[in-house]
Design brief:
The protein is an alpha+beta fold and 562 residues long. The protein has helices at 2-41, 46-65, 67-75, 77-106, 128-135, 155-177, 192-198, 238-250, 277-285, 295-298, 319-330, 345-352, 389-393, 463-466, 496-508, 530-560, and strands at residues 141-146, 181-186, 205-210, 213-217, 223-224, 235-236, 256-260, 289-293, 305-311, 334-338, 357-359, 363-365, 370-371, 374-378, 381-382, 406-408, 416-422, 428-430, 446-447, 451-457, 476-480, 519-520. The strands form 6 sheets. Strands 8-7-9-10-21-20-17-15 form an 8-stranded mixed sheet. Strands 2-1-3-4 form a 4-stranded mixed sheet, with helices on both faces. Helix 1 (2-41) runs antiparallel to helix 2 and helix 11 (319-330) runs parallel beside helix 12. The protein is elongated.
């Protein structure tokens, strides 16, 4: 009888000890499910919160039911060995964490340690061009990076966090190569005065400083978003943008841009609404030197001219001036012509006709794409070109107040002419300049779409279209049927400033003189249906861990009750 009673008591004790064990296993499983659900969703959900609350409750109940076993375990001699093992594992884990944190924060300062970049796109390795430019720094260069602090765990917050990490990792690599390069991160929302001081209004912008010189690197030069329509992946082009900017800001000489005067052009130094003082400040900020040029007095265009700009002449060019400009362009000179309804078209047409373009007296009327119902202020459609690619990608479009239409009448074999801005099909070129009742007159007016701006280069093919680098003898010219859009009154309207600065950068070839392979952000993707995705999630993230956990609990329980 005693033997039977003892057996029954052992059986009852085993059953009693199994309940807390299963409760503990269920608690651990629920906590894992809650953690996995929160990590996959990127935010706390009702399922994750419920699993964590129920799991913690079951864990407390299991601890209460097994309080005797817990007490015996803690005061048992074998517990000391278990605690010793746990402490040993904890110390090893802490050492590994410390080593990883040290390597992450100070790896660029520890030059003697070997470094290996195992990423597919070599995200953590600088190109030889960047290393060479950084190694030649003779003065301190400081980068001020404007980036908002990501808030929340949604899709937008993840994108901001990813882009911020990409840019900061690149700057750390720069700092690791040269001690003369330093950087700091600034949140424009927390430090609006700093953003206002540097004139930055777009997060993701980098301002490089060398002494008194400053150079702004725009966000769209650093981050290239994906385009599902054209099957283009998002790419990080920060290294090419920053390395080219470093080359420009460290050069002893700056590109010299001449503004032609003597024909009642827009005044470069005037702060009046119709002046160009704000444009001049932005060109100087982008590391250009500016000078006025009276061609009749100089009797030539200086050889050190990176380009000449004729901004809204109200008087005709003289015959000697036309010849000097034509010879300058034929030798590979660069020019930007800004025209408007007051421009004498005869002399300008003679300059443009050798390239297959001409102008005539008109003004554009575009009722469809008009700025705030002003039909004479067209908002053009931008065409693909190195000047407009970034603007199209980010949906930034200029507006041309009181613009005139240009006309391409035939193709020249030696020149590559591209329309970079055009009006809608509902537009027309009104030839009656005195008219204020806008109506299309068949036979008199020219029906749209109309060419509002074009770019021409002296080489056919991709060279004249998609490259910022230019040969010394290569000719480039941009002609825009408006000069009002860069005046102090409207330069901040939409993308007027960015459009013109892109034109200057392309014409002078100063934007990207070295090319560094862009690094795609997204990896290779395997297309999965919703059912397959759920099957992989539940089998790998839930079924396998639960199987191993349940097997371990059963083995432990059976060995304990043998």
């Amino acid at each position: 009888m005693k033997g039977v009673l003892v057996k029954d008591k052992r059986t009852e004790s085993a059953r009693t000890s199994a309940v807390p064990l299963f409760l503990a296993a269920a608690a651990i499983l629920l906590l894992l499910v809650g953690a996995l659900d929160a990590s996959f969703r990127g935010e706390r959900s009702v399922i994750a919160s419920s699993c964590v609350i129920v799991g913690l409750s079951l864990g407390l109940v299991a601890t209460y039911l097994a309080r005797q076993q817990v007490k015996q375990f803690l005061f048992h001699r074998a517990a000391l060995y278990d605690v010793n093992n746990i402490l040993f594992v904890g110390v090893v884990f802490a050492i590994l964490v410390f080593i990883n944190l040290f390597a992450h924060r100070y790896s660029e300062q520890v030059f003697f340690l070997p470094k290996y970049d195992l990423t597919r796109n070599q995200f953590y390795t600088l190109s030889p061009q960047s290393t060479e430019v950084l190694g030649q720094l003779k003065e301190d260069v400081k980068a001020t990076v404007f980036f908002i602090t990501p808030r929340g765990a949604g899709a937008a917050g993840k994108i901001i966090q990813r882009e911020r990490a990409q840019l900061e990792n690149l700057l750390k690599l720069y700092r690791g190569v040269s001690s003369r390069f330093t950087y700091r991160m600034v949140d424009p929302e927390k430090e609006p005065s700093t953003a206002e001081k540097y004139g930055v209004n777009l997060p993701g912008t980098v301002v490089l400083e060398r002494g008194e010189k400053k150079l702004v690197v725009k966000r769209w030069s650093i981050f290239r978003p994906g385009d599902p329509v054209r099957n283009k992946k998002a790419a990080f082009t920060g290294e090419q943008a920053l390395t080219n900017a470093l080359m420009r800001i460290c050069e002893a000489t700056q590109p010299l841009v001449y503004f032609v005067i003597g024909h009642r052009e827009r005044n470069l130094n005037s702060s009046k609404p119709e002046g160009l003082s704000e444009l001049a400040a932005r060109l100087r900020r982008d590391h250009y030197r500016l000078m006025n040029l009276n061609i009749l007095q100089a009797k030539c265009i200086p050889t050190d001219a990176a380009c000449i700009i004729i901004a809204g002449p109200a008087q005709a060019l003289s015959e000697p001036e036309e010849k000097i400009i034509a010879d300058y362009l034929a030798r590979g000179g660069n020019a930007i012509l800004l025209l408007d309804t007051m421009t004498p078209v005869a002399s300008i047409s003679r300059l443009l006709e050798p390239y297959g373009v001409r102008v005539f007296k008109n003004f554009i009327v575009d009722p469809l794409n008009a700025y705030f119902n002003r039909p004479t202020w067209p908002i053009p459609d931008l065409n693909q070109h190195i000047i407009t690619d970034d603007l199209i990608r980010y949906g930034r479009i200029p507006t041309f107040p009181n613009a005139m239409a240009l006309e391409k009448f035939y193709d020249k074999p030696k020149f590559y002419v591209r329309t970079i801005a055009q009006t809608s099909r509902q537009s027309w070129a009104e030839t009656n300049l005195a008219s204020r009742r806008f109506k299309f007159n068949e036979g008199e007016d020219t029906k749209g779409p109309l060419m509002a701006a074009f770019a021409v280069a002296s080489e056919l093919g991709d060279r004249g279209d998609s490259s910022n680098y230019r040969k010394q003898t290569e000719f480039r010219m941009v002609t825009i049927g408006d000069s009002d859009f860069v005046t102090n009154r409207v330069i901040d309207m939409q993308a007027n400033s960015d459009f013109f600065l892109n034109c200057v950068a392309w014409v002078t070839g100063m934007a990207d003189r070295i090319t560094i392979r862009k690094k795609e952000v997204e990896g290779e993707k395997i297309p999965l249906s919703e059912r397959k995705g759920e099957a992989i999630f539940y089998s790998c993230s839930l079924a396998l861990p639960f199987t191993f956990l349940l097997t371990g609990c059963l083995i432990f329980w059976r060995r304990r009750n043998r």
